[in-house]
Amino acid sequence: MKPFFLLLFFAVSSRVTAQEDYTWWNEIHQWDGVTSWNNYLTVAPAYFGPNALPVPELRKGLPDSLFTVEAAGGGHWSRGDKTYDTQLRMSVPFCSGKVAVEAYVVPLEFYAMDTVTRDIRAARDRDGKGYAGGDIYFSTIVELVRNKKGWPDLAFEAGLRTASGTRLGAARFTDAPGYYFDLSAGKDISTGKAITVRPSGLLGFYSFQTFDVQQLQNDCVLYGLGVDLRNSDYCLSAQICGYSGYKKNGDQPLVGRFTMQSIRSSLGWKVSAQLGWHDFDYRSLHAGIVWRLMKKVGK
Predict the structure, then answer these.
(1) Which range, of 68-72, 74-78, 139-143, 215-219, averages the lowest pLDDT?
(2) How far from each other are the two terminal CA atoms of the chain, in whole angstroms?
(3) Of 41, 40, 43, 44, whose CA–CA distance to 253 is shortest?
(4) In the chain, what are the domains?
C-alpha cells in the first residue's frame, strides 16, 4: 500500500504545482522575482471587472420610505470581457422613513475575458474564464430637508464597501475596502398633468484602497445628475454619474443610466441599462423584480 500512497502523493503534488505554475504570467509581465504580483495590478475601474469599482448610485434627496427587496440578473459587455451576474438589494427604513439602511451585493458573476484584456489587467487567470463572488455594500441615507418651501429635498449618505469580493488574481474584485459620503438633492415638479418631474443631483467623496505602497488609497470626487418622470404606475429615470480620482490611471469612470420600473403594486418589475463613456468600457442590461411593503415601517 505504501507505494500506492506515494504515487498518489506525487500525482496530487504535481497537479497542484501545475495549477500554480505562473511562468506564463512572469514572462508576459517581466516579473522581477521579488515584487508581489498584486503590485502589478492597476486598482482602477478601467482595469478590473465591471462589478469591482462601480459608480455609486445617484440618490435623489430622499431615503426610501418603504421596506424594499430587489433581485435582478443581467450582464455587462465590453470588447474583451463578457460578464453575467446576479444582484441583490435590500432597503430598510427607520424613523418614519427619515432614515434608511441599505445592503447591496453581487453574489455571483460569470466572466470570460480574451487574452488581450487579461494581459492589460495583469490578471493571473490563464484561460480568462470563471466565476466570482462580489463585495457587500452597506449604506445609510438620512433625510435632512423634505418638502420645505424654497428648498429642494436633501439627504446625506454614508456608504461602506467590505473586502468580501473574490478572484483578485483574475482582476474581478479588489479584495480591499472602500467608503463614500455624498449629499443629494431633488425636487418634485408638477406638470399640471398626471406626470411628475423630479430633477436630482449629487456631490460627494469616494475613496478606495490600492496596492500602491506610495499611495495606499485613491480619493475621488463623486458626482451625478438625473431626472425622473413619474406617474401613478411607472417611473422612468435617466442619470449621468461618475467619479474622478486623482491618480488618473483609469480611475475616472463616467456612465449613463436608464431605468424603467413599476411602482403601484407591492410586487413589481424593474429594467435598467447602463452605458459607460470613460474608464468604464461596458454596456450593461439588467432586469428583475422588486418587492415593497406598501406601508411605512420603523415608526
Answers:
(1) 215-219
(2) 70
(3) 44
(4) 2-296 (2.40.160.40)
